[in-house]
Amino acid sequence: MFEKKPYHRIPKAVAAAAVALLLLLTPQRGLSAPNTASGGTPADTAWDQASSLWAGAQTDEEAGLSLYARSAVLMDADSGRILVEKDGQRVLPMASTTKIMTCIVALEQGGGEKNFSVSSYAAGMPQVKLGVSPGETYYGKDLLYSMMLESHNDSAVVLAEGVAGTVENFAAMMNQKAEEIGCQDTHFVTPNGLDAQGHYTTAADLARILRYCILKSPKREEFLQITQTRSYTFSDVTGKRVFSCQNHNTFLDMMEGALTGKTGFTGNAGYCYTGALKQGDRTLIVALLACGWPNNRTYKWSDTKALMEYGLKQYERRDVWEDVVLDPVLVLEGIPDSGDLTQKKTVDTRLDISAEEKSLPLLLRPEEKVEIRTEIQRTVHAPVKEQTQVGWVEYYLAGECFRRVPVVTAQGAEKLTFSWCLKRVAAVFLGG
After folding, report:
1. Which of 17, 167, 259, 328 has its C-alpha lying 20 to 30 A from 215's C-alpha?
2. ω before 383 within 30° of 0 (cis)?
3. Considering the entire predicted model, what is its pTM?
4. Cα–Cα dist 326/190, whole Å
């Protein structure tokens, strides 16, 4: 007969540690974490993404509008979103609306604080012009008023040559700024908008440029001061010649809250216009290209008013931000907080955004709804650092993602290692 020996139960902690040792000594397969997070590259958390700028945009027909312009947009200035468009991405010449870019580039380059001499080329510009003569010197600030209030072509060239040396160099500055702003289909050749091959924009880009001028540029206050001035008198540096300018932006007196604007006309471009209005918490921008030819010069005012009134009537600002409940993420090969390897290690997740940024105001029609989608990885491999990105919370309007907020880990997690398991086993056997 064999002697029956007493059975000794192995402590659970020892067993778990032993299993962990075996797992660490055994090659692991099939433990790669499924990545369900969308994207994988950093995304802009603003509206300044080309694809989302058109989310939910209505055509002029859908809005019940009958516009004269061949190309037109109504934009929410704060977000950059296009609200209404009529062939808004059609490439067309823009005439003297060009000068809003000339003005902002000259201001940002310090052109308003300098004096500039007139070249023969600048003096030879066609009407509309100030009538400067070669060799005369003018204050840059005065030329900015001349260009923006009266649309003087020669003043634009004096500024361009004074700031950049040549018109070509200044046009390169304009194109660089257009790219920085996010213009998709714009190219500048002249600083005054006279017809030239390769000089073009779209209504959407023109609105985007004006948005930059009034909201984003470090010189936005100076830009608004110039373009809101009704009349301005100045002289050349010697004081021998005196000039008086009047603002020809009729829109300033058409609607309450009118902020700024610039007209334009050439034989190829027709009448063009871009202007902005602010009422309460809504700032709207209109851009019109090819809005009639001679005998139709009032069409641009009709279209501008129709679009602005539609925007004010149909759109209200709503904050669509929502605090989303986020699930924790399972950490593969992670050490549980308790040290008990029979338990799983998870880390909490949070939005990588400050409390002050938790706001998303949009101009929306009553029927427009925002959809929120959460895309988060189910698992990650240890070790995990705090603030490791594991997904996104995405905001959609009309099927277009217009904002993505990163989801990150709220804590870190250490990796289960051979040395940790040995220490754990030793601690159990020694009663530690």
Report:
1. 167
2. yes
3. 0.84
4. 53
